[in-house]
Amino acid sequence: MGLTSVSRVQADEFDQESAHEIKKKRTFRKFTFRGIDLDQLLDLSSEQLMDIVHARARRRFQRGLKRKPMGLIKKLRKAKKEAVPGEKPDTVKTHLRDMIIVPEMIGSVIGVYNGKTFNQVEIKPEMIGHYLGEFSITYKPVKHGRPGIGATHSSRFVPLK
Q1: CB 31, CB 125: distance < 8 Å
Q2: Which has more confidence, 21 or 113?
Q3: How far apart are CA 92 and CA 45, in angstroms?
């Protein structure tokens, strides 16, 4: 026997309700960096941030941010301020591969120099504490194919005539 029109309507309502409940359940995991959520990270002072990053970054911050890293942060602030709300800010190019990513940089787009070109990197919360250079590869990965000339000893013998 087929479904009556009343039972079809009830089935459709049930499907809509279950789909709505599934959407409710699918909440995204809130980002935390060493137990501190993102909005609290953005409010931290540099001394408080120093306490939660790894030892190498802590030492670097203790010795003070020099002129070039501060200049990069100022350019990033300016680019974010000038950006249209909801749009990505303009790319800020830099050679500072050894710059440690701080929470203030999140959402910025940085062109990191790899020795030849500037690779665009969008800063995400998961990148905090890492170096900019980690996200801009400096070499071209090897694509193994056929061996070329001089790759083996047998290719050494080349007749003169």
Answers
A1: yes
A2: 113
A3: 24
